[in-house]
Amino acid sequence: MAQYDVIVIGAGPGGYVAAIRCAQLGLKTACVEGRETLGGTCLNVGCIPSKALLHASHSLHEAEHNFEKMGLKVAAPKVDWKQMLAYKDDVIKGNTTGIEFLFKKNKVDWLKGWGSIPAAGKVQVGDTVYETKNIIIASGSEASPVPGADVTVDETVVVTSTGALALPKIPKKMVVIGAGVIGLELGSVYKRLGTEVTVVEFLDNITPGMDGEIQKNFLKLLKKQGLEFVLGAAVQKVEATKTKAKVTYKLRKDDSEHSLDADVVLCATGRRPYTDGLGLEALGVEMSPRGQIKTNGHWQTNVPGIYAIGDAIDGPMLAHKAEDEGMAAAEVIAGKHGHVNYDVIPGVIYTAPEVATVGKTEEQLKAEGRAYKVGKFPFMGNARAKAVFQGEGFVKLLADKETDRVLGCHIIGPGAGDLIHEICVAMEFGASAQDVALTCHAHPTFSEAVREAALACGDGAIHA
Ligand code: FAD
Ligand code: NAI
């Protein structure tokens, strides 16, 4: 029976990163994973496959709408769905086998199978019980059922994101329940592939929690792309046959009942922690009412020697948040000072244009009664964006009115998911809007729009 310093349960972005960092810090480490491949939700059925399909469908859109404008004459593009799925699967494989390579390189043992914790200091996989000084639970999350509605997921006609990433054919009509990140990313994929997409959302706006101005503009852009929205609607039930489904919802404003027919219904109303089979109840590990494993500021549960990270604990369900916690927890176990700054975790929606956000929204600053200023710059004033037909959207920078310290940034536009990191770094260093504005930005880049927004917090943008 092997004796480990650390056994990590789950090889998603939280778990595999934690395992690699533990090994790098000199700890004898194993990682238990029940799936056939490493990488968790993110690499197998989440971030990576969805980005592959977003890329392929965006490329189709470019070919259909922009090639001719640039003098590129090609035959009308056709979609070979089987090949598109094969491309997506290849991308997944490249990434998951990459983690296998990293495990070997860093001498992390992969214990194949589903793990449980019979007692603190022990992890059982199959019939084998391993001894370990520390355990990190990184068991991730699963799709939540649609709240308050009668819906049975079959992953063929009524699907979660997992089914939506591997549909046997491109549906003619799709109803998406939930206008959050999954609904809008995958809704965009199918819209670009020719599906009629209607998004039904409980609230009166999309992407709850985002800056209000971004929500409104994002909704406008998505509508312009042909996605349809029913807002303020509570889904009651989904009735499905083997090939069709009917979604019944009530409008919250007048309680009137309506229905929509679809070939596929995508349920995307959030995810919940997955901790089944770990034996946490018997161990007495404290959980929140929402099923999250409770941890302190050092990712320790109430049971000594058991840590938890990623989607299984509190906080945004994002791969990079899980990764950062994985590194930090490893450092804590190795006697170092692991740290995650939860105030500076970016969020990105990989639609076209992308949406990216970090720090406070204008609504949050108002609620806090904090005096702030806003610097905004539209991508229409950015030469590079216009040249590549991506002049839609804007950068919105929020800074403290007195000190000029950057408090948040919200971007819709080309490369928003990359641009946001300039502001993440600025916020980590406590920079002012003027610090960003006085930093030379190469021309012509999308990044100049961030600088112009920072200039707009002071004496004014140049190109607006
Ligand atoms: P997971 O990635 O869920 O990994 C947990 C792993 O633990 C799984 O492989 C599971 O099999 C394993 N496991 C669980 N229990 C056991 C057990 N008892 N024994 C052995 N193994 C076990 N986030 C982003 O930041 N960017 C994105 O673009 C993005 N896109 C997404 C798209 C979709 C469609 C979805 C569904 C999610 C997306 N996410 C994205 C969210 C992201 O996938 C998660 O936040 C991230 O995967 C969480 O990492 P984790 O390590 O906590 O858990
Ligand atoms: P979400 O929390 O982003 O959005 C769920 C939406 O469903 C909300 O708008 C909510 O108001 C709505 N809703 C809830 N109940 C409803 C009902 N009964 N009827 C209609 N609408 C209802 O959840 P989503 O999109 O499922 O994503 C889950 C998680 O995965 C997110 O927390 C996200 O962090 C992560 N993710 C991240 C991505 C990224 O970073 N690009 C991509 C995809 C997922």
TrEMBL record:
Any one GO cellular component localisation term in the record: cytoplasm
Domain (Pyridine nucleotide-disulphide oxidoreductase dimerisation): residue spans on this chain: 345-454
Domain of life per record: Bacteria
Family per similarity comment: Belongs to the class-I pyridine nucleotide-disulfide oxidoreductase family.
Organism name: Thalassobius vesicularis
Cofactor dependence: FAD
Cystine pairings recorded for this chain: 42-47
Protein name in the entry: Dihydrolipoyl dehydrogenase
Leader peptide range in chain numbering: none
Taxonomic lineage: Bacteria, Pseudomonadati, Pseudomonadota, Alphaproteobacteria, Rhodobacterales
InterPro entries for the chain: Class-I_Pyr_Nuc-Dis_Oxidored, FAD/NAD-bd_sf, FAD/NAD-binding_dom, FAD/NAD-linked_Rdtase_dimer_sf, Lipoamide_DH, Pyr_nuc-diS_OxRdtase, Pyr_nucl-diS_OxRdtase_dimer, Pyr_OxRdtase_I_AS
Enzyme Commission no: 1.8.1.4
GO molecular function, one term: dihydrolipoyl dehydrogenase (NADH) activity
Catalytic activity field: N(6)-[(R)-dihydrolipoyl]-L-lysyl-[protein] + NAD(+) = N(6)-[(R)-lipoyl]-L-lysyl-[protein] + NADH + H(+)
